[in-house]
Every structure is written in structure tokens, then in C-alpha cells.
Amino acid sequence: MASGIEKINIYGDSRNCSSVTPTFKCNNKADLVESGKDYCVDCWTKKTTGLGIEQIKLQIKLLGELKHD
Ligand SMILES: [Zn+2]
Hints:
Blueprint: E1 5-8, E2 20-21, E3 24-25, E4 32-34, E5 37-39, H1 41-49, H2 53-67
Antiparallel strand pairs: 1-4, 2-3, 4-5
The chain binds zinc ion (ZN).
């Protein structure tokens, strides 16, 4: 899943997420760069998995709860 990431933005440069759709423009701080485009974590996970980061957290939580049964 992580293949294709060129750079993780850990250097504190102030780039913004470049994700734009007809109904939505994201202005979050960009966390990573892929194919020369900046993405925040939320947009990147949506782009690569179809799920937002909150949905992924929920899935992980549900999986964890299943394991404890
Ligand atoms: Zn974004």
C-alpha cells in the first residue's frame, strides 16, 4: 500500500493538500507527496483505499474488538 510514496513530509515545509474534486477542495496541510502531488493523510487514504482516515480508524477499532471476543 505504501509503494509510490516519494516523500513523507516530515520537514515542516508548508505545503497544502492539492486534492480537488468538483464539489470539494481540500486545504489541509499536506503530509506526503505522491506523483508530484501533495496530499494530506485523509485524502491520500481516500485515494488509495476509498476510505477516509476516520473510517479506517473505525475499521481497526472494530477488528480489535472482534479479536477480544
Ligand atoms: Zn486533503
